[in-house]
Amino acid sequence: MPERLPEGGRTTVLTGRMHGFGATRQAGPAAARRDVRPDRTHLAPDAARMHLLQRTIGNAAAGRVLQRQTAEERRTAKRERVVKVTPAGYAAAHNRAGVTALTKAQLQDYLVMAFVDDLRMAKDYAAEEADIAAVTTATRSLRALGQAMQPLQAGAVVGAPAAFLDGATEDVNRILTGRDNHATRYSVEPAAGYQHNTRNPQAMATSWADSQAMWAQIGPALGTGFPAASSAPRTPAQQPIGHLTWAAAKTMLPRPMLNLLFDVRFQLESETLVDERTDIELGNREKSPHAPGTLRSWHQDDAGKLPGTGIAPGDPQAVRDRVEELEPLGLDLHDHYAERSQSGAGSSVQNPARSPRGLAEYTGAGTNSEHFTKIVLDYVNKTVYLTLTHYQFWGLANRGGVAEFWTFGTQNEAEARGEMQARERQEGLTAGSTKLMSPWFEITGM
Question: How far apart are the C-alpha atoms of 54 and 5, rounded to whole Å?
Fold first, then answer.
């Protein structure tokens, strides 16, 4: 039977779908309905709200509201998942049919970066009998998987012992959903119940003490030969962007930053969302949040320091159209970013953007101050960039075969070059022994 909704003294008959697309109206005498009150408060809250919307703003408009609500609820659910990178998503990113088709090396990386530490936390938070049983089973299966992987060569496919991970990841998310990753996975001082590197506490450094320590450590780690390869910026006059391989990054970057880089990159195939802003910050479209893993203002790259997405920056609809072709990989991220962020106001913003340009910018992680660490995801081309200098130029000096990371505190290349040359003279280094570097690294080989 079509639903009859009171409308003045007449009855509107909805013969289309509930949300109004394709619905038609037929008018006729109102029938007496003693069992239905006008406000429909006897209905479930969602149904009552929809009836109220239909009466006050019409079926089509109510449909659009419902669509927006549904999209927002979907994106909220994706944002609140703790394990951002699913086994299936990670496998898809590596052109594998599923988690069982991953190689030993690939699966080891997934387990370390995305699963083991969160499973350990889920053990502490599991309270319901079903949840306790789930994490117990997952732990037992993980142990069996490790034993099965041990004799395999790095390139060998793991196979059936990995099949449990799809369901186990869902169990971990059910137990932990809604907990803040900025206080656990992305934090240098994780909240109680979380520990980095649970299987091997010495595997990766947990943090840089501060920004000065970050620069002091990263220079020698990069070495005098960096970069081994580079990407061309969108504007040819800009410095090329050095490639930092994922394997090398894991030897020199702190674990919280590695977790964030991993999650930011593979959220696309996993159909999840990385954005650690609070509800208040989201409501305010906060553009400069401080917590690691928070989405910031729309990264514009007006100066053309990055290679670019391949889409004209001044055509916002073209960006969304291109992303929509990749559905569902980047569309939810793009729409969430469009609705919950805004144009920046820094000195590098020459013409404020009207919408995202395909470059999602995140507050970084790994030190006691995230001011200098920022991550940008080109979600059109699925490329990740990292800056340790808050978009400012830096130099890699060669002091007797040991590399030093010099900061110049400016986004102006001419100023940075002048300071670099003055510092060479001041410290007695040979002119030209220091390389002026792009503010950005490209993280490759993930």
Answer: 9
Mutual angle of helices 116-125 and 129-149, in 10-degree steps: 150
Exposure of 180 in the CB half-sphere (CA atoms within 13 A): 14
Region 17-43: mean pLDDT is 37
The span from the CA of 103 to the CA of 119, in Å, is 21
Q: What local confidence, expressed as pLDDT, does residue 90 receive?
A: 98
- With a cut of 80, say whether residue 303 has pLDDT above it: yes
Q: Are 384 and 441 in contact (CB under 8 A)?
A: no
Average pLDDT rounded to a whole number, residues 48-67: 54
pLDDT recorded at residue 24: 36
Q: Which of 377, 384, 268 is nearest to 328 (CA)?
A: 268
pLDDT of 364 strictly over 70: yes
Structure tokens belonging to residue 10: 């007449």
Average pLDDT (288-303) is 95
H-helix or E-strand spanning residue 394: strand 394-399
178 or 7, higher pLDDT: 178
- Count CA atoms closer than 13 A to 124's CA, side-chain side: 9
In angstroms, the CA 61 to CA 193 distance is 46
Tens digits of per-residue pLDDT, 82-112? 999 999 999 999 999 999 999 999 999 999 9
- The tally of CA atoms less than 13 A away on the side-chain side of residue 6 is 13
Alpha helix (H) residue ranges in 180-298: 211-222, 246-252, 255-270, 279-283
Q: Which two tokens stand for residue 181?
A: 């990753």
Nearby residues of 141 by Cβ (< 8 Å), 6 or more positions away: 161, 164, 168
In b/e form, how buried is each residue of 142-171, taking b as 16+ CB within 10 angstroms? beebeeebeebeeeeebeebbbbbeebbeb
The dihedral region occupied by 390, where left means phi > 0, alpha psi between -120 and 50, and beta the remainder, is left
Taking each helix axis from N to C end, the angle separating 116-125 and 165-176, rounded to the nearest 10 degrees, works out to 50
